[in-house]
Structures are given as structure tokens and as C-alpha cells.
Specification:
Elements lengths: L1 H5 L50 H9 L4 H15 L8 E4 L4 H12 L5 E5 L7 H12 L3 E4 L4 H15 L4 H17 L4 E4 L32 E2 L2 E2 H7 L4 H4 L7 H7 L2 E4 H4 L4 H12 L23 H12 L3 H11 L5 H11 L8 H8 L3 H11 L5 E3 L5 E3 L12
Length: 412
Amino acid sequence: MKEKKEKYKAFYGLPNEVKFCIKCVMSNQRPTSTVEFKHTKESKKTTMNFDEDGVCDACRSHEIKQNIDWGMREEELIKLLDKHRKNDGSYDCLVPGSGGKDSAYQAHVLKYKYNMNPLTVTWPPILYTDYGLKNWKNWLDAGFDNISFYRNGKVMKLLTRLSIENLLHPFQTFILGQKNLAPKIAAQHGINLVFYGENEAEYGNPLADNTSSLRDKSYFSFDNLDEVFLAGVSIKELMAKYDVRLSDLMSFLPPKIEDLEKASIEVHYLGYYLKWTPQEVYYYAVENTGFKARPHRTQGTFSKYSGIDDKIDDLHFYTTFIKFGIGRATYDAAQEVRNRHLTREEGQALVKRFDGEFPDRYFDEIMKYLEMEPEYFHELCDKFRSPHLWGKDEKGEWKLRHNVSLQGLDDK
């Protein structure tokens, strides 16, 4: 079996041998967080670590959380808030979000429990869902000021299309805005404290990344424009080949390191200070900000309330299934298993049933927006399938060589 695995090429620097965590349903093909504006076609992924017992870092991180003194963490939070609290009516912290459950929870808790005055900032989804837009409006109607930044639509469309063609990454333009806009707006308004929700380490980054509340500045700042890539293309090439002005790209770029340092911006994870359980965050948002789940099951998974703002979100998780063999059901089930809302066996069954389901609900609309032929998108998907993950069965249909139920092409 091992010799058979090693003869297939692995793309993106992924581990050639596919393994699954013995506690949850996640595989060792899951990439850890990287600097979004440095992605290129040649980028190699760093993937989630499994220890010698076959347990992933995300599960170990969850175990560590159970032993944290959350009372002491809350005291740390209060000290941080008191340090930045303003009494003149001006904003003293900033919460980015598009109206999802996490940003709704953060802003509401900070304002109504800890008496802060947050400014909320929105980089709108590429294509808002009707219910996502309604949740965003409900969030603001729950008592928040907001700056919504609508970027250059022509450039947004170009970069989203290029991110699919070059990286099979339809969500990159949204992620860039979510990560980069908040510190820039904070600096403009004299706000020194920015909050995001959970640390990426919760889901598989190195455990050491979860020992601080601060977000690594490399994720949202740059020093040299020549080292910045959008949609896998350098800034110089975008300007020369696609006739895009630098001024048209500025909203997609992170702030310069020197500008952040001058403004003394601190970016923290609220999830470091408050115990964060996605299902409980959802219930809080429903009760306090009018958040509503989507009226139907999310394609590719079994849930209804996570990542429902953008019509492209579902397609994004389909592309992670293509590139890494990990679809949305795997991400969701792994999380629910760790939180003991599902058994591993139940998680396996849900992954088998829903992972890789093609999200056709908004697909035609997305293709029309991008001016891309659907056949071309599917051709790109086949191009991005790593040979060590995918093969064709006797009917000529693509199948994973290995899956968490041990029923892949090469598991038999």
C-alpha cells in the first residue's frame, strides 16, 4: 500500500501520505494559515501537524482550552479594555464583520457587557445572499455604527476571476478585505484596538500560535510592494498586463508595517479571552442581534448558520475539497466532534454524505458575474486535483483515493 501511495505526485507541497486524526475527522492535508497576499501558483503549503499518537493540533488545542482559567482570561480582557476605553464618546475599539454570527457576537458583547464603544467595519461579500444582507442590517439595528467599504467593482471582479484561474481560490478577494481593511480604518479613526474572533490555531495552526491574544502582523501588513501578490499575480504584472492602476488596487492591499506602528494598532483575538463555542455564539447572535440561519441546508455540509453571507462561500469550500480533499462537511464535523456535539462515527457519516457536494444553488449566477463559462470552471477544477488525492474509478468518475471512512479508491 505504501509503495502505491508514493508513486502519485502531491501538489502544493502536501504530505504524500494521507492520514486522518484519530479523534476528529480532519486529514493531514489541511493547510495552516498563511499570508494571503503572498499566494502564488508555486506556493507550498504548510499543513496541520499530527502528533505521534495520530492526534491533530486542532484537537490538542481544544483539549488545552478545557484547562484554561477563563475567569483569569476575562480579567486580562477587562484590563485591556480599560487601557483603551474612552470617555469622550469616541470609538475605542473596532470589530470587522459582514453580519455573520461571530462579528455580531463580538460587537454585542463588547458594547453591552463590557461597555465599550465599538465601530463596526464591513468589507461586503462578493455576492451577498438575501439572508446574509438581512443579518447584516439586523446586526447594525441592534445598536452599532458601521462603515461599509464598497471597493472598485471592476477590479473586484477581475481579481476574483484571476484568483480562480491561478489559485482555484474564489474567496481570496473577500478574505483580503476582511483581514486588511480593519487595521486601515482603525488607523484613520484613531482607534488602537481591533478585535477578531477565534485564533486560527483553534483549527489547526501550530499550538504555539494560540498562546497569545495578538494576531501576527505579517497577516495584515507589508513592507515591500514587490512581495505582494493579488490573485497570484504581482502588483507590477497586474498594472502592466491588465491595465489596472495602483490606486485601484490600494483597497485590496494591507497597510504598511510603518503605518501600523505609527498608529499603535493592536489586533487581538476575542476568543483568547472568552471561551468560544460556535454553536453557543450562534444562539447568542440569534437572541441579541436578530441573526437568522439560512432557510435551507448549506450545500456541501449539514449546517445552516456558518458562513452564509456570501454566495461564493459554498463554492470556496468546494474548491478546498478539490485541492486538499477537505470539504465543508469535514471542517464542520471536525469542529462539532471536538465540541462533543457529535461522535467521530457520526462525523464520518456526515462527511461521507455531504463532503464534496457540488454547490449548484448560486453557481450559474456566480459564473455570470465573473463572465466565466461553467465548463471552464470545471476544467480548472480537474487541473487543480492533486494526483495523490484523486483518481478515476471504473466508470471514469473522479474519486478520492483516501477518505475518513476508509472507502477511497486506494483504501479498498
